[in-house]
Amino acid sequence: MLTNQKGHKNITFPSPRVKLCLEGLSLYTYFVYEGVIFMKKMLGEARRHELLNMLKNSKVPITGSELAKHANVSRQVIVNDMNLLKARNEPIMATSQGYLYLNMEENASLFEKKIVCIHTAEEAADEMFTIVDCGVTLKNVIVEHPVYGEITASIMLSSRVDVENFLAKVKETNATYLSVLTNGTHLHVISAPTQQQLDEAEKRLREKGYLVEE
């Protein structure tokens, strides 16, 4: 199937003129008809190779929709591709902001800690803002489910903009926080370039009564 990038109807070409275009690591097959480019869907292994390189070269998460648009496939195909890549031990993380390729060398230079927090759903935004305002990344949220055991959701929030986007998505989808399953108690893994930043985040959380300690 051919998709017109300008939104025209699909057209089948009996004898298409095929051209290969190399842009970095991107490999596309496209048809030119009356000055309009029609791009074929990227297929199988070539598509996964392209998507993997996109993630490796990005410092920020890329949404499934963006990847789907780039490869000219459905969102579900991207989900399947990401699962296949992760099955090959590619360090790809699905976060609330999109897919992120974990750079092990960069992560090794960060300080990291797991903390236990408790607060109401109404206080969730303040907790997240408190953490990122210290220059700390909120990597995930972890809860203990009575049936499924430990549930971990990667969120990777590093700034107020990240938190605002996360909160907007929660509101838009009418989602509930995982901590609702455990009456507000949950864990976070937080990371920062320095230990001092982690200590400052803990101090502020403690002052607001969000931190659970012995």
Largest sheet, order of strands side by side? 1-4-3-2
Biggest sheet overview: 4 strands, antiparallel
Mean pLDDT: 83
CATH topology name of the largest domain, in short, is Histidine-containing Protein, Chain: A
Derived structural class = alpha+beta
Q: How many distinct helices?
A: 7
The CATH H-level homologous superfamily of the largest domain: 3H domain
Overall 3D form:
globular
Query: Radius of gyration from the CA trace?
Result: 22 Å
Strand percent estimate: 25-35%
Number of strands: 10
The overall number of domains is 3
**Fraction of residues in helices?**
25-40%
| CATH class group of the largest domain | Alpha Beta
The rounded distance between the terminal residues' Cα atoms is: 61 Å
Oligomeric state of the chains in view: single chain
Order of helical and strand elements? EEEEHHHEEHEHEEHEH
Which spans of ≥5 residues are poorly predicted at pLDDT below 50?
Answer: 1-29
Describe the overall structure.
By secondary structure, the protein is an alpha+beta fold. It has three domains: 1-40, no CATH class; 42-102, Winged helix-like DNA-binding domain superfamily/Winged helix DNA-binding domain (Arc Repressor Mutant, subunit A); 110-207, 3H domain (Histidine-containing Protein, Chain: A), CATH 3.30.1340.20. The protein contains seven helices and ten strands. It has helices at 44-56, 64-71, 75-87, 104-108, 124-132, 160-173, 195-207, and strands spanning 2-4, 18-23, 26-33, 36-40, 92-95, 98-101, 111-118, 137-145, 149-157, 185-192. A four-stranded antiparallel sheet has the order 1-4-3-2, with no helix packed on it. The protein has a four-stranded antiparallel sheet with strand order 7-10-8-9. It has a two-stranded antiparallel sheet with strand order 5-6. Helix 2 packs across helix 3 (75-87), helix 5 (124-132) packs antiparallel against helix 6 and helix 5 (124-132) runs antiparallel to helix 7. Residues 1-29 have low confidence and may be disordered.
